[in-house]
Design a protein that fits this description.
This protein has helices at residues 2-13, 19-26, 92-106; strands at 32-33, 38-39, 44-46, 51-53, 58-59, 64-66, 72-74, 79-80, 85-86. The chain is of the alpha/beta class. A three-stranded parallel beta sheet has the order 1-4-7, with no helix packed on it.
Length: 107
């Protein structure tokens, strides 16, 4: 419940059209935020404590940073284009079980 509420609040913050307002409210949630970082409008951040952003970095609009499966470390002087999705989760367990079933049925 608390995680969903935090995600909802972050979503509202990232819709604010003023860069400086977004920065004031998002900074306490991030794992690290360097100097001169610009988070554009409608950036979606999942588990912000796992997101580390270096200096002089821009993350453009409609970008997703998903820290649910581990850390995302974005270095210095990085420009992430709009509508990029960076995921830390994967479906390996599901893939392994499907592959095992397929192998068992073939042999």
């Amino acid at each position: 419940m608390i995680v969903e509420l935090k995600h909802y609040i972050l979503g509202l913050i990232m819709k604010v059209p003023f860069h400086f307002v977004r920065n004031i409210f998002i900074n306490p949630f991030l794992g690290h935020r360097g100097d001169n970082v610009e988070l554009c409008k409608d950036v979606e951040i999942r588990i912000p404590g796992n997101i580390y952003i270096g200096n002089n970095t821009t993350i453009n609009k409609d970008t997703l940073l998903d820290g649910r499966g581990g850390k995302i470390i974005i270095g210095n002087c990085v420009d992430i284009a709009q509508e990029v999705r960076i995921w830390t989760l994967q479906h390996w367990r599901l893939l392994k079980s499907v592959n095992a079933k397929l192998l068992n049925s073939v042999f």
